[in-house]
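YM 10:42: Peptide chain release factor 1 sequence, as discussed on the call
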Amino acid sequence: MRDKLEKLIAAYEELERKLSDPSVVADQKEYTRLAKEHASQADLVARAREYLQALDDIETAKEMLHETTDPEEKEMLQEDIASNEERLPALEEDIKIMLIPGDPNDEKDTIVEIRAGVGGDEAGIFAGDLFKMYERFCESRGWKVQVLSSSPSEAGGFKTIEFKVSGDKVYSVMKYESGVHRVQRVPKTESQGRIQTSTATVAVLPEADEIDIQIDQADLRIDTYCASGPGGQGVNTTYSAVRITHLPTNTVVQSQDQRSQIQNREVCMQMLRARLYEMELQRQQDELGAERQSQIGHGNRSEKIRTYNQPQDRVTDHRIGFNSTYSSVLLSDGLSQIIEALAAADRAEKLARAV
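YM 10:58: structure's back
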């Protein structure tokens, strides 16, 4: 392991030299890329240096132990050796986990789409509840939430809502939310007190910038139309809403929630880049023979990653069998515990495959 860690530290130090090179500093894109790589390696290199220092301290102490005849000095050296040897297993475990190849998208911001599934009005209300849950969760982490596009449901909540989450390593956390979410509860509209099962789908896409996805303007059909719903005097009088169709893939995105046509167009391009980037990732994984199911399935009740059961005050994440309470997850800040458990299970699985 020493040889591997020394090479890793040398590569990190080479990165530091490049970041101080005037030619690199002048190239903003290259500098940004190298700076992100440097930052992503910082914790691993710190642990590697700590591990190698412990090995060196043990070796030095053993050499001194053979040379000294002083009983007190021998005792001190033996304690030093034992202390460093005790630290090594934990350092090794940390390093092994950090050496697991990360998802290159983990550093990215995300675009999240919530879509009401099976369950009529109650599904729309549940989609709205999920959005509020994510708003609270993101706020607790200091992340920014920007609604890109939404289609409100008549009974409350949303038929669909798309929003961008910006902050530190957003995708590394939010990616665990992709899939079908199922709720079991008595709807507000239910007079007989019967429990209804409804679903909403959540898709989490890493945001793609122009470096990731190049879009030919000739491949786009851009339509403008009058916005509908709340928005003041401009609604239904100016063509501020924008719909963009990517002709080669027939991918359609639209936005009417921003103040101007220019802003709605930029939002549409953000969503389009994210969707095309996801398609490209899917294509690459298919070529490699990876068996990858779609993020959101068909929205059927049987295709679920998590169930929110209000009468039993229980939330179950079916991927790892983790249970929490309905009130803490959907109405408070309990989502963090589920995501931390999912991340821990993911690390353990990757570590088992790597060993």
